[in-house]
Structures are given as structure tokens and as C-alpha cells.
Design brief:
By secondary structure, the protein is mainly alpha-helical. The chain has 16 helices and two strands. Helix 6 packs parallel to helix 15 and helix 7 crosses helix 9. The longest helix has 37 residues. Belongs to the binding-protein-dependent transport system permease family.
């Protein structure tokens, strides 16, 4: 008895040339060469950023010790001033190149210095106390805005020419309004007039922080207005970007083939069109995540929110170079890590990227 002829596995023709091809073939190859190339680039970028972070504060007029001595009104002796300069690495008798290498040595040991504006507390502790508030607030708001804006933009692009197009100019207009205007309007309406939400701070005075229902409820209620402010102000960019990419993707041949095969519109929308149109959004999303750390100064001022943006403002006013450098370092690392993750995700979803880079 002759063996039955075997047939080679067929590939869905609607997926050829799209980012779904690799997934249809079963398994995704990890682009190690692409990852290593990008990692080398970002390591160089990190070195350059840290170097600039060291030199810029030392090029500014005045320093934290001068500011501290002015506030002390002559109560500190010259010996105490010299000791402070040694502590903060601002001793003019030490060559600049030596200060630079000492700074790198501190970084490698995980020592970011001492903050003069927070009562001589370690910079790492000052940042660690403020960073979770910013990440929790703005991070959640950014993810919500990205998810809603991308989904709505995909549907609007799919149903182009319908009544849904009115959302594009509306959300775009809202995106041109500064954050603090929305914040002030929401405080006046939802807090002062209706009394639904608190006007500011992260929780009420006297509430003991901890993993209990009272504290969590306080945090959520105080974060409601800031989150609403960020979501509404940033929604327009996600909607417009995804809608425009959908219009481009819908003209591709594989969309026509998929529709000609009689596939359900929902499957064509999400598996074929939106999957390819979302790629540029991923890069923008990574950048927005990176700028979460330092892009909320005004919003945190309006709501008196104890995040990293307000901490940076206070450090700048006090000329607290150690704290400024620590915050800038966290900002740079956040941007770089977010971009590395975006590059990896982009390369996995779109094999053409790593083929070009390789």
C-alpha cells in the first residue's frame, strides 16, 4: 500500500507581508542581534546623558551650599561650609575630572548623594518616597488614555465617513487645552460645587498610610480628578494617530483580500488592520511612559500632589543639585528603558524592523 502524499502547510494569503505572518507560522524568533545592537546604542546614550547630567548643574550660577548658607544667615562657620562642599562634591579644590570620576563611583555604588532641601536625607530615599505617587497616578492615566484612544481611533478609522468622525476634532481640541486649565475647571466643578472629589493632595491629613481600605479609598478618591485631567488632555493624540494609521492600512491589498474571503468585519478590523496600524502607537506609548516621571510638574502643583514633578520643582528652587541630578537620572533611565522595551516589542511584532536593523 502506497503512503498517502503529504501536503505542505498552507499560509493564509491575507497574512503574507503583514506582521501577523510570523505568528501564523507558529512561534516568534527572538531577535537577539537586533536587541544587542539597540542595547549598545542605548548604553552609549545613557553614558552621554549621565555625563551631561553631571556637568550642567556645575555650569549654573550658585549651588546648594550657597543657598543653604544664605538661609542660615551667617550661623554656620567657614569650616562647616567646607564640610558641606565636601559632602556634596562641590569642593573647588578638587579638580573637575576627579569630581566626575567620583560621581561615577557613587553611581556604581548606588549612592546618589544627599539632598540639602529635604533635611540632608539621601537622594535615593527622597526620590523613592515621591516616585510611586507619580508612577501610580500618571502611569495608570497614560495606560487608560492609550487603551481608550487607540481603540476609539481604530473604530473611527474603520468606519471612516460616519458620524463617529466628529470625535476627532473634539478630542484634538481638548488635547490643545493645557493640563492645568482642566485641573482648575474640574476642581471648581467636581470638588467645590458638587463636592464629589477632594481638591488636592494624595490623602487626607491624619490618615495612616497602609494597605487598608480607608487609605486605599482615600488614594483613589484623591487621584480621580488628576487622572481624569490627564486622560482627557491626552486622549486626542491617541485617537488621531490611530485613526490616520487605520486609513493608511485599510488601503493595503491584504485587507481587500481578507474582506473578499468573507471574513467577519470584526476579525478584519482587529486581527489585520488594527494589528498593523498600532505599531507606530507603540513607539509613542513608550515615549509617553518615559516622560511620566518629569512631565507632570504643573499638574502636581495644581493638585498639590506629592509626586516626582513637585519634588523636582522644589529641588530647582533650592538649587539642590544632588536631588536634581538624581531626578534627571531617573527620568533619563525611564525614557531609555521604555524605548528599549518598545524596540523589542516592535521588532517582535514587525520582523521587517529587525531585518533592516540587522
Amino acid at each position: 500500500m502506497s503512503a498517502e502524499p503529504t501536503t505542505a502547510p498552507t499560509v493564509d494569503p491575507t497574512l503574507v507581508g503583514t506582521t501577523a505572518t510570523r505568528a501564523e507560522r507558529g512561534g516568534i524568533r527572538v531577535p537577539w542581534r537586533f536587541i544587542l545592537n539597540r542595547a549598545a546604542f542605548y548604553l552609549f546614550t545613557a553614558w552621554a546623558a549621565i555625563t551631561i547630567n553631571f556637568f550642567i548643574p556645575r555650569m549654573m550660577k550658585g549651588d546648594a551650599v550657597d543657598s543653604f548658607m544664605a538661609r542660615s544667615q551667617g550661623q554656620l562657620t567657614p569650616a562647616a561650609e567646607k564640610a558641606l562642599r565636601l559632602m556634596f562634591g562641590l569642593d573647588s579644590s578638587v579638580p573637575l575630572w576627579q569630581q566626575y570620576f567620583d560621581y561615577w563611583g557613587m553611581l556604581l555604588r548606588g549612592d546618589l548623594g544627599v539632598s540639602i532641601s529635604t533635611g540632608m536625607a539621601p537622594v535615593g530615599e527622597a526620590i523613592a518616597s515621591a516616585l510611586p505617587w507619580t508612577l501610580g497616578l500618571v502611569g495608570v492615566a497614560t495606560v487608560i488614555s492609550f487603551a481608550i484612544g487607540t481603540s476609539v481611533g481604530a473604530v473611527i478609522g474603520w468606519r471612516r465617513g460616519s458620524a463617529l468622525d466628529v470625535f476627532v476634532p473634539v478630542t484634538t481640541f481638548l488635547g490643545t487645552v493645557p493640563y492645568f486649565w482642566f485641573g482648575l475647571i474640574f476642581i471648581a466643578f467636581f470638588s467645590s460645587t458638587l463636592g464629589w472629589f477632594p481638591a488636592g493632595h494624595a490623602y487626607e491629613v491624619g490618615v495612616e498610610p497602609g494597605w487598608n481600605s480607608e487609605f486605599i479609598g482615600q488614594v483613589l478618591s484623591h487621584a480621580a480628578l488628576p487622572v481624569l485631567t490627564i486622560v482627557i488632555a491626552s486622549l486626542g493624540g491617541w485617537v488621531l494617530g490611530m485613526r490616520n494609521m487605520m486609513l493608511t492600512v485599510l488601503d493595503e491589498d491584504y485587507i481587500t483580500v481578507a474582506q473578499a474571503k468573507g471574513l467577519p468585519n470584526r476579525r478584519v478590523l482587529w486581527k489585520y488592520a488594527a494589528r498593523n496600524a498600532v505599531l507606530p502607537q507603540i513607539q509613542s506609548f513608550a515615549l509617553s511612559l518615559g516622560f511620566i516621571v518629569g512631565g507632570t510638574i504643573v499638574m502636581e502643583m495644581v493638585f498639590s500632589y506629592p509626586g516626582i514633578g513637585l519634588l523636582l520643582l522644589n529641588a530647582t528652587n533650592a538649587k539642590d543639585y544632588a536631588l536634581m541630578q538624581g531626578i534627571f537620572l531617573v527620568l533619563v533611565m525611564a525614557v531609555l528603558v521604555a524605548n528599549i522595551i518598545a524596540d523589542i516589542v516592535y521588532a517582535v511584532l514587525d520582523p521587517r524592523t529587525r531585518q533592516t536593523e540587522g
